[in-house]
Fold this protein.
Amino acid sequence: MMDHTMPGGYVLYSVELVKRWRIASSELLDGTGLDLELLSDPRTRVPIDKVAQVIARARSLTNEPAYGYYLGLQMGVAAHGLLGVAVMSASRTREAIDLAIRFLPIMTTALSLRLEVHGDEASLIFEENADFGPARESILLAAIIGIWRIGLALTGRELAGHADLALPEPAYYSQIQRVGQGRLRFGQPAHRLVFDAAVLDAPYTMADPVLLQLAREECEIILASRGPDAGVKARVRSLMTQAGGRPVSLGHIAQTLRMSPRTLKRQLASEGTSFSAVLDEERHERALLLLRSPGASVKDVARRVGFANVANFTRAFHRWTGRSPSQHRAVNGRAPPR
């Protein structure tokens, strides 16, 4: 069974929040085995049962049943470390969500995310992978409100829609039933944020392709360091990213992971993918990243992504996006180099 943890910094948010009720950190952390010095160390990982213990205690000490709501309002992009940097540097909402889904395990495996788009409606779905005990309501409420607030910070506008929780409606519902322009709903089939799919193409004013590349590469390294719990696909993607577009083979990756090519194929298949599919995904993401640089020609991008010629790259890019690299640049306002 996986041992779910969270960074100590997440607990510090509760330490700061309860000060509004004049509760000292020593009182909040009493009996948990945690202290401020430990939590302030960026290397500290706190077992999920300890996180749940602190949040349940905070809710009790403050006598605030909607504690999770206020905790979510306090959390911003910076709370998520390198993942926050990567998300903040993305070019558009869809890219930011893809990064959050991929790299959330470096922050915690207690929750996971997935995106579903049906027509004009997009849903970011939260899935529970751990037992949060008596803090379940507060943790889920904080998570969904926190992500909603990050969306506001990055797009610069309220996300009209609604936030759903698969929890019974609490007595304090009237106190928190609205989130910005959206509505918070309990008693729903899933935990999710529901919004207009057009938001997925909303640009970010803080987009920074260079910072994104650096943050993404660091996130890949951390993800790979999680070992087997990160999943074979994640470790293969990490190695491909580190190769920087240089040719990689199934045999080389298998050798690096200390397994046979046959075993690697079998483990990827168990995760619903294949080596060629993972390579295709990596090339796709890298191409989108490189095309944002106006100093790189399509020929340069094709070479750096691992294609022998522009024609093969163009065919692959059209398969990925439905348009040519030049058309993609025109749509995204990136002029080609002279």
